[in-house]
Amino acid sequence: MVHQTEQTPSYLDDTHLTEIVTRVVAAGRQDDGAAWVAVRDNLFHPQGGGQPADRGWLDGCEVVPVRDAATGLVVLRAADADVRDLDGLAAGDEAKARVDADLRLLHAALHTAGHLVEAAGRAQDWTYTGSNHFPGQARIEFTPDDPGPLSDAGRREEAADRLRAFVAAAVADGLPVTAAPGPDGLRLVSIGGLHTAPCGGTHVRGLADLADVAITAVKLRKGRLRASYSASHRTAG
User: Fold this and answer.
1) Total domains present in the chain
2) Which residue intervals make up region (Disordered) (predicted)?
């Protein structure tokens, strides 16, 4: 049995780390006979917490990272079921891991922007109820104490403008984004002194890294308010 402590979530230590040489700590086969492996220094963010999985490669084989419920390990499977490049890897073997750097930074930007939109909604005394940080689908959902006034399109647009002003001011301030374990051991991600939430996702180093942050729509349905948004990672230079 492989213990979770034998795998380090490298993707949480440094969002900008996109290539590493590591070792296989476990290997096996799925029910259909396809190989899977788990590596010691896991570079790959698996889908979860509203964030999509990294696109990555292990020794040149494109892989899909999936968290195994039984062990807690993130295991890697070939993206193409017909590719057998992982078959020869065994525990102890050295392997080169790499993730798509541009996609990693986009996911980090969207996730951080989502936390910022959440903070903006909480500042309106709305209760956070859910999130999606996928490209093209990003949204934060809230439950207002009194959703009635927001059924009016004009009032909703006023609320959207308040969210936009909150977000724009925070981005302009370039607040730092940090992560640290909380009292109960959960990883807490903070945007300056503005907002803190438990999170296992990837994030930018500071709001100055964000570009094109926009609240694209605010809609009310069945008492829940959905704030859709978009964001990207600022390019160097």
Assistant:
1) 2
2) 137-156
Q: Note whether 107 and 218 are same-domain residues.
A: yes
Residues 192 and 176 sit within 8 Å (Cβ to Cβ):
yes
CA distance 58 to 70: 23
Give me the tens of pLDDT residue by residue for the chain, a chain 237 residues long. 444 448 999 999 999 999 999 999 999 988 777 899 999 999 999 999 999 999 999 999 999 999 988 888 999 999 998 888 899 899 999 999 999 999 999 999 999 999 999 999 999 999 999 999 999 999 999 999 998 899 999 999 999 999 999 999 999 999 999 999 999 989 999 999 999 999 999 999 999 999 999 999 999 999 999 999 999 999 864
167 and 143 assigned to the same domain: yes
Q: Are residues 175 and 200 in the same domain?
A: yes
| Cα–Cα distance for residue pair 146/123, rounded to 1 Å | 15
- Which range marks the domain in which residue 44 is found? 4-99
